[in-house]
């Protein structure tokens, strides 16, 4: 990320508004989703852009629970912790926080949240854990994460997952198997999804998107975008009944059609990029084709990256 990349998210002025959605209940497990609302950003003097909304999934049984991913800032972590307590109730314990991939907005508060429940472990595949540690390397940490979340909002102390999953990627609560499926490329490398067969569920991380603009800053070549499509085929092969994208809006639903819609967006991006001579043309083309998608900052950043206006 170039050092000139300056973004300030105005989290301090945001009201603590969230929305909880029930997904499904089956075989002694229940699935609920916490929606973190979009945050306004200031980027390259523009004040009308917003970061993408993000969903965090809680899968819980009679006594134990698994949280998938955790947000970036301490305040967001506090609010998510309160929600987990409210949903799970006093008689359930959060046993695991599973990290789908190495982007900081999906794990920075994992240790903070885990500390609320004695024995709670932060869980990741080995290559995801390595990717997490890379987020603290310079200049990436300062130029991206500290500019996104200034003023002591995020932890600056690198940490490892406390449970590195075996090669088969499985862990359990109350006899229910959870499987980390390493699909490869999503909007970043070393991406996984979490498959929970007993509730016909896939939590899609940043591989499957809802109605939010998709990040292409780390998918600048056609080869990488084709790999992302291949990853989506791997998700579809799991034949889930419910799919929770990490970046989605309340009301987008949890249908498997998100998989095909994510592919559609990638292919539309490919065509729009080929026809665009400026980042403005690319951004406008995607806005026109997908007017209901959220995350205008992600669209702006992604549109500029192929034209070397902003790049990782």
TrEMBL record:
InterPro entries attached here?
Answer: Metallo-B-lactamas (IPR001279), NDM-1-like (IPR050855), RibonucZ/Hydroxyglut_hydro (IPR036866)
All copies of domain Metallo-beta-lactamase, residue ranges: 53-247
Highest taxon above the source species: Eukaryota
Query: What Pfam families does the annotation carry?
Result: Lactamase_B (PF00753)
Question: What protein name does the entry list?
Answer: Metallo-beta-lactamase domain-containing protein
> Sorted alphabetically, which keywords does the UniProt record give?
Signal
Signal sequence interval, chain numbering? 1-20
Q: Record's SUPFAM superfamilies?
A: Metallo-hydrolase/oxidoreductase
């Amino acid at each position: 990320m170039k050092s000139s990349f300056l973004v300030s998210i105005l989290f301090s002025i945001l009201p603590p508004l969230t929305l909880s959605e029930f997904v499904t209940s089956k075989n002694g497990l229940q699935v609920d989703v916490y929606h973190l609302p979009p945050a306004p950003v200031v980027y390259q003097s523009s004040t009308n852009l917003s970061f993408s909304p993000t969903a965090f999934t809680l899968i819980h049984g009679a006594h134990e629970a698994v949280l998938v991913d955790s947000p970036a800032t301490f305040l967001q972590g506090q609010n998510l912790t309160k929600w987990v307590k409210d949903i799970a109730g006093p008689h359930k314990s959060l046993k695991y926080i599973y990290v789908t991939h190495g982007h900081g907005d999906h794990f920075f508060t994992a240790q903070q949240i885990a500390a609320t429940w004695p024995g709670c472990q932060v869980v990741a595949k080995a290559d995801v854990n390595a990717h997490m540690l890379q987020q603290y390397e310079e200049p990436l940490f300062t130029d991206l994460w500290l500019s996104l979340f200034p003023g002591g909002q995020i932890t600056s102390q690198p940490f490892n997952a406390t449970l590195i999953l075996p090669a088969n990627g499985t862990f359990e609560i109350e006899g229910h198997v959870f499987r980390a499926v390493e699909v490869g490329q999503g909007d970043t490398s070393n991406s996984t999804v979490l498959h929970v067969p007993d509730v016909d569920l896939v939590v899609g991380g940043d591989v499957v998107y809802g109605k939010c603009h998709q990040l292409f800053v780390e998918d600048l070549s056609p080869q990488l975008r084709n790999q992302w499509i291949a990853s989506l085929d791997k998700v579809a092969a799991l034949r889930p009944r419910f799919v929770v994208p990490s970046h989605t809006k309340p009301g987008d639903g949890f249908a498997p059609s998100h998989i095909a819609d994510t592919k559609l967006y990638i292919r539309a991006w490919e065509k729009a990029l080929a026809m665009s001579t400026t980042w403005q043309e690319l951004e406008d083309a995607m806005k026109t084709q997908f007017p209901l998608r959220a995350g205008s900052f992600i669209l702006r950043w992604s549109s500029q990256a192929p034209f070397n206006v902003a790049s990782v």
